[in-house]
Amino acid sequence: MILFEFIDVEVPELSSELFSFWLDNAVSEEGKTTGEITVIFCSDEYLLVMNRQYLDHDYYTDIITFDYTEGSIVSGDLFISVDRVYENAQGLDFDRAIELRRVCVHGVLHLCGYGDKSDLEAKLMRDKEGYYLDKYVSRET
Predict the structure, then answer these.
(1) What is the per-residue pLDDT for 141?
(2) Per-residue pLDDT tens digits for 80-98
(3) From CA 39, how far away is CA 116, in angstroms rounded?
(4) 8 A C-beta contact, residue 111 and residue 65
C-alpha cells in the first residue's frame, strides 16, 4: 500500500491513484512486493530539520528515505521537499511534475536496494529512473 501525506505543502499535479499504481508497478518490476510505503511531501524547512536530526546533515535536500524493507517486502517512508524539487526543476529547466516523479521513484528504488554513492550505482539509478519515468508518461496518455 502506498500512502501520501502533505505537511504544509500542496502538490496540485499529483494524481495519487495513478502515482500509487505506477510506483507499485515499479516495485513489482524489480521483483519485490509493495509493503507499506508512505510518501510525505513537505517544505524545505521541515526536511532540513529532519536532515539535521536523523542524518546529522546541515543542508537542504530533495528527499530522505527511511528504509523498513524486510526481505522482498518493500516498505519505508519517503520525505520529499516539494520546495527543493521545484527549485531543482527550475534550475535544470525541467518540468516540475516530472522532477517530482523522478524523486519519488528514486526513493522507491532505494527501498528496492539500489544505491547511488558510486559513479556506477548513480548511473544505474539514473537509468532506472528514466525507464520508470517513460512508463509513467505512457500510462498518462
Answers:
(1) 44
(2) 999 999 999 998 888 898 9
(3) 20
(4) yes
Sequence-distant (6+) residues with CB within 8 A of 99 are 85, 86, 88, 89, 92
| DSSP structure class, residue 11 | -
Is 108 exposed, middle or buried (CB count within 10 Å of its CB: 0-12, 13-18, 19+)? buried
What domains does the chain contain, in order, with CATH numbers? Answer: 2-140 (3.40.390.30)
How many other C-beta atoms can be found within 10 angstroms of the C-beta atom of residue 84? 20
| pTM, full prediction | 0.91
Closest to 19 (Cα-Cα) out of 131, 120, 102? 102
Categorize the per-residue pLDDT at 2 as very low, low, confident or very high, splitting at 50, 70 and 90. very high
Cell (9 digits) for 14: 499529483
3-class state of residue 92 by DSSP: helix
C-alpha cell at 69: 524493507
